[in-house]
Amino acid sequence: MSFANKDELLIAKNMVAIIQKNKSWLSEIDGAAGDGDHGINMNKGFTLAAEKFTPEMTMSEALLLISQILMGEIGGSMGPLYGCWFRGLSRASGDRSVIDAATLQTMFDKGLSDLRTLTPAQPGDKTLLDVLVPALEALNAAIATVASEEAALSALKSAAQDGFDATRAMQARIGRASRLGERSIGHPDAGAGSCLLLLSAFADTAILLIEQGKAHATTPE
């Protein structure tokens, strides 16, 4: 099963909502190794984007709007990084009327490849890559076994959680937190935290939409 791009502004709305709900938590974990403004900046960018959503927007159009706001309206390093990622998600799906397993794979492949044009970070450096890379690997592995879209999205979400949890034991090797050296060990990475939230919101909403589509398809006229 799949869902229609033209009808699913809900995915973008729920990605905004999860950042808004967890802005304090993001700033709290950022304060352990950074300047404590990650939640503030992310909330600002996502809220500004949500204010410009229109009911007619497709999922891809809303994701592109988030990209534009993040790159143009919030400070720090995370705005351009996430802006680039969202732009990749949008461009890989913009011409697709149906979001199915193959499109999901293309979207997250493109998002990651675009993000990597801006950062030299690799898994193990204690960044959002420690969530994105294993999440994408899990998605691709599930799709390769001809798993359902729901199973593939659940695998993505589970791997994202594991990736975030693993950052706690890592020493930061890139970004502001790297200046702390070994003192960065013992705290999860804030960028990894926001990435976990965004992937979870995407996966949970997409699974809900797919299940609703199945229920509708089996409801007798």
TrEMBL record:
TM annotation in the entry: none
Q: Which InterPro entries match?
A: DhaK_L_YcgS, DhaL_dom, DhaL_dom_sf, Dihydroxyacetone_Kinase
This protein's UniProt keywords: Kinase, Transferase
Is Cell cycle one of the keywords? no
- Residues of the signal sequence? none
A GO molecular function annotation here is: kinase activity
Determine the domain of life of the protein's source.
Bacteria
Any matching Pfam family: Dak2
Which SUPFAM superfamilies does this chain map to?
Answer: DhaL-like
The DhaL domain is annotated at: 6-204
Q: Which residues form a coiled coil?
A: none
Q: Which PANTHER family match?
A: TRIOKINASE/FMN CYCLASE, TRIOKINASE_FMN CYCLASE
Q: What is this protein called?
A: Dihydroxyacetone kinase subunit L
